[in-house]
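Repro case for the chain-ordering regression, as requested:
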Amino acid sequence: MAEEKEKCIELTGIVKKYFIGTENELVALNNVNIDIYKGEFVAVVGASGSGKSTLMNIIGALDRPTEGGYILDGIDVAKADDDELSEIRNKKIGFVFQTYNLIAKTNALKNVEMPMLYAGVPGKKRVERAQELLKLVGMGDRMKHLPEELSGGQKQRVAIARAMSNDPSIILADEPTGALDSKTGRLVMDIFHKLHDEQGKTVILITHSPELAEETERIISLKDGQITGIRQGAGRPKETAKETKQDQPEQPAETSEGNEE
Amino acid sequence: MLFLENIRLALSSLKANKMRSLLTMLGIIIGIASVIAIMTVGNSLTASMNDSMLSMGANNVDVYLMTKETEDEVTEEGHTFKADSGNPSIEDEDLISKEMIDNYVETYPEEIMAISVSEQVGGGSISIDKKTASVTLQGESAGYFAANNVKLLAGRAFTAQEMEDGRMLGIISSKASDKLFESYEDAVGQTVSVSMDSKDIAVTVIGVYEDTSAATGVISISFDFLNSASVLHIPFKAARSLTHSEGYSHFSVVTKPGVNPDDFAAKTKSFFKSYYKHNRKLDVDAMSMASLVETMSGMLDKITTAISVIAGIALLVGGIGVMNIMLVSITERTREIGTRKALGAPNSSIRTQFIVEAVIICLIGGMIGVSLGLGLGSLAAKLMQTPASPSLKSILGSLFFSMGIGIFFGYYPANKAAKMDPIEALRYE
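-- result from build under test --
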């Protein structure tokens, strides 16, 4: 079914080398070819050092490949300059980080507004959209809270709302549950499923956890900078699919920030 | 919109590090405060000096004796007014004689309107009941009141006959009158006893003049500090009868309208040169009021420049402090910068954000500095009994200048932040 849809991401012959021309030249990615379609939920798995972070940086327009082509929504990202990359990151991609990366001393609402600020969305519209998104992730009652007053799961939900603020075509989540306990991790995964199922978002999940990867539609395995396999995933676990209530209050004790890398 | 957001961000970042921000601002605060303080004092001094000098008459030329340059002792002392009692080495025969002045007036009838001479008798005090006022007894020629724009508040001036007779009549200052009498009208007609070193002199008050020394220049300031003596004017002849001296060490010339005082001062100088050619000790100098004012404001300008240079150094150090703290702040916030970039902030936004932050630090420092400087300046002006006159131009200038410092010293750190690699920045611990 995915094959009928239009391509969202088209990576062809991606090579990424570091320390080019020196003795310790490192090939992080070697001839990677991936097509990702609109509305797909894809997992990229691999051990550390497999090149998945490099791949994420390239997909996320944070970095340019040494060789190869990258078309995102018809835009040639591989040839874009710094300002164009900024605009692509701003409008086309929603980042979710393992360590949340909320801006300190800035409340949840302002954090969610931030990407819209850079996109030049007018103030009133910005606030409305941010409120709507925070309600969507079940943070409607904590909009004025500062990041330090939120638990890990709550922070990650704010971060997801922020990723959604400019209505990007893809959500790029790098180990989004890596710093959370399994219960809150589940809650966060359910939000991704919800965004995928209900809003038709393309979600790319980068993880080292086989169980989480199994929840997606397609799993891309990386090893030593090369794709070693692409297979179908099992999809969203049935028992969680019906659970839509996410507004249950969380215990602050669940934070596990000590695990941050 | 993004700009307002940047200001909000900058303020919240300052609030988060209050102590650090304040210490950073200190250099700017000190620099701006000293500039504003000196400008305020300098302005009020210049203004009141001009006022008092010009009220004495812009067309006046002062002529005075000074020690010859060959003796290598020409100091500012040579310019002191009414210095006849000050230099003991001046003998009676060295003084400018009545004949010289008469000749002088005859030589330049087209230029001279009046000649004003003063004879300082000395300081004394007047006591009535338990009230005391210090006065300086000073004899004046007829031209004095015209030359100095003296304004009478009560009573009358000396008549020509009274001048000629040299009677002990006095015109008292409003200040001394305030101390001694109920009203100015009360003062007129009273005979007061001025006690000097060894004798008491009875003077009948016939008038009260307006004492403007509270708002006059540097000269009267120093008088006011030492003793608040005000001048009690008596006829010139009356003063001469007390001092028993002949000749003059100083006099003022009121020039006729249309005469250039500077040119006339030069002519006067060369006129008296002929008399003093053979005098080994003394020479005559003449100076117009206008050029005196110029000399004084030139002096003030030099002081202002010197303090401005010091303030400039403080501002430079302050600016470097701002740059340093911005570099620290950027390192601390590397993750934030990485996140902002990942979320689509272009380099220019990051740069603007940090420049705005540096500008806000400097601007707040500048504002504190301006208020502090105004406070200090007003205090100093009050001590010197001159009205404080802060200049709006220097206040606005200082604020713009501190903003300029923010931009200049904030640019390098901000640019460093803008050029950070987002991947590295995101990974930064």
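Ordering looks correct now. The two ends of chain A are 38 Å apart (CA to CA).
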